[in-house]
Design a protein that fits this description.
Elements: E1 11-16, E2 23-28, H1 33-47, H2 59-74
Antiparallel strand pairs: 1-2
């Protein structure tokens, strides 16, 4: 990402299929779990949910995202 934010967006979600290397980039205003979960839900609705969701972030952050995704699916 560039050193200066572009408007309100400061971060980028990088979602990549491990097998095909197909990549989806989504801009984020913050790195809070709720916003990341919303972007992932959008991607899952377009392409389907993966069998394995791998993250390079800490376990507690990934757990919050999974909990948010679960809550969104139950509503």
């Amino acid at each position: 990402m560039q050193s200066e934010p572009n408007g309100y967006y400061r971060f980028i979600t990088n979602y990549q299929n491990h097998l095909t290397k197909f990549t989806i980039l989504c801009p984020l205003k913050s790195k809070i779990a709720e916003e990341v979960a919303c972007q992932l839900m959008y991607i899952f609705c377009m392409f389907g949910a993966p069998f394995i969701l791998q993250s390079d972030t800490g376990r507690e952050f990934a757990n919050k995202i999974i909990q948010n995704l679960t809550d969104m699916c139950q509503e």
